[in-house]
Design brief:
Blueprint lengths: L7 H29 L5 H28 L22 E2 L2 E2 H20 L8 H24 L3 H5 L7 H19 L15 H20 L7 H28 L6 H15 L8 H26 L7 H19 L17 H32 L6 H6 L1 H6 L9
Antiparallel strand pairs: 1-2
Helix pairs in contact: 1-2, 1-3, 1-7, 2-3, 2-4, 3-4, 3-6, 4-12, 6-11, 6-12, 7-8, 7-9, 8-9, 8-10, 9-10, 9-11, 10-11, 11-12
Length: 411
């Protein structure tokens, strides 16, 4: 925490960025996920993300921020800022109020855990998810954030992760995949055609995510400057290229029908891929990262999932885990010191950065997988199985858990 003067321009930008990122979870992600799920479980799907935002927001100010950003060792921050102890309204982080930095980072924690829910909707008990979301922010997200952004060992190693390629997307994607294997596939997964509740709502959700991502990536500079402007530009370029990459490979490799679900999924893949790179690469890097992320997302969702037979309901591992890892590696190649001084990748004379990025992906993946496994097993031991009953799965989770319907129409 640096006791410097507050810059009103930087503060105004960060107030807006924080609001944009906040919009991504209870509005963008809920509509994106809700539109993709089956009509009988729309509200439960939305509720899992919505509730995760609530739990993460509380956990973050109580203990998560302290674990991530307090002074500590190489692996975890201490509890110096438990309940934001020691942080006053006049304290400054860089050129913005420290409390604003706390809020901005809290929105990252919230969307990270909400992303995990997309892997396991339509088969996990609501109570299990409620407890899991609390423990995951404390034991998985916050330590990893400390490793990369809080002065931990990955920061010392030199990983470049501008806005959360490994901290958020690889982390969430791997956790989601572990939970998929622990809970098992949905009944009739391979033999039943699943119809999305509303492609229109899904498109609206993807557009809100795209919009909010400008705060996600641009705000990570913590200043209203040229790097933030570059982050906005390359974010938009990569999103567009991701949408085109998925659309084209889908168009020419299946039955010649480019779908809007595919286009929107490609956009999200492009946004994920550029997240670690946004403050380090120029437009040429963004073109490659965005287009490549769209292809990687498609291959992960359509090919790898089919090959391995796992039921990642909304393809969190393919879109976030794999595209996030791809973006992190590409950052090690395309990082341009003319964009962000002192940060060079392979193409600019620093081939070792690729190896650093690879090590970081492996470290986060292993930790996320192991601790997610332990959290779920402990919850199951204390509260019973996290899997819903066959009857609830057949009839849908909206009425069983919430007593409400997402669409007030007859079946």
């Amino acid at each position: 925490m640096n006791l410097l003067a507050i810059n009103s321009g930087d503060t105004a930008w960060m107030l807006i960025s924080s609001a944009l990122v906040m919009l991504m979870t209870p509005a963008g992600l809920t509509l994106f996920y809700g539109g993709l799920t089956q009509r009988k479980s729309v509200l439960n799907t939305i509720g899992m993300s919505y509730t995760a935002f609530c739990t993460a927001s509380v956990v973050w100010v109580v203990i998560g921020y302290s674990i991530a950003f307090s002074d500590g060792n190489q692996y975890i921050g201490y509890l110096d800022h438990f309940l934001l102890n020691g942080i006053g309204v006049n304290d400054v982080y860089g050129t913005i109020p420290t409390l604003l930095f706390v809020f901005f980072q809290g929105t990252f924690a919230a969307i990270a855990v909400a992303l995990v829910s997309g892997s396991i909707i339509e088969r996990v008990r609501y109570s299990t998810w409620f407890v899991f979301s609390i423990l995951w922010v404390i034991l998985v997200y916050s330590p990893v954030a400390h490793w990369v952004w809080g002065g931990g060992f990955l920061a010392d190693l030199g990983e470049l992760d501008f806005a959360g390629g490994t901290v958020i997307h690889v982390n969430a994607g791997v956790s989601g995949l572990v939970l998929v294997y622990l809970l098992g596939n949905r009944a009739g997964y391979k033999n039943t055609s699943v119809r999305p509740a509303s492609v229109k709502l899904m498109i609206l959700g993807s557009a809100l995510l795209w919009f909010g991502w400008f705060g996600f990536n641009g705000g990570s500079q913590l200043a209203a400057d040229g790097i933030a402007a570059n982050a906005l530009l390359v974010t938009n370029v990569a999103a567009a290229c991701g949408g085109l990459g998925w659309l084209l490979i889908e168009w020419f490799s299946t039955n010649s029908k480019p779908t809007l679900i595919g286009s929107a999924s490609g956009v999200i893949s492009g946004l994920v891929g550029i997240t670690p790179a946004a403050g380090y690469v120029d437009v040429s890097g963004a073109l490659v990262i965005g287009f490549g992320s769209g292809i990687v997302g498609y291959l992960g969702v359509v090919k790898l999932k089919q090959l391995l037979g796992y039921d990642d309901t909304l393809d969190v591992f393919g879109i976030h885990g794999l595209a996030g890892a791809f973006g992190a590696l590409m950052t090690g190649i395309f990082a341009n010191p003319l964009i962000n001084e002192g940060n060079a990748g392979l193409l600019y004379g620093n081939p070792g950065q690729v190896w650093i990025q690879f090590q970081s992906i492996i470290a986060v993946s292993l930790y996320s997988a192991i601790v997610t496994f332990i959290i779920y097993k402990v919850i199951s031991l204390i509260f019973g199985t996290g899997r819903i009953t066959e009857e609830v799965e057949k009839d849908g989770m909206d009425m069983a858990y919430h007593g409400e319907r997402g669409f007030d129409i007859s079946d």
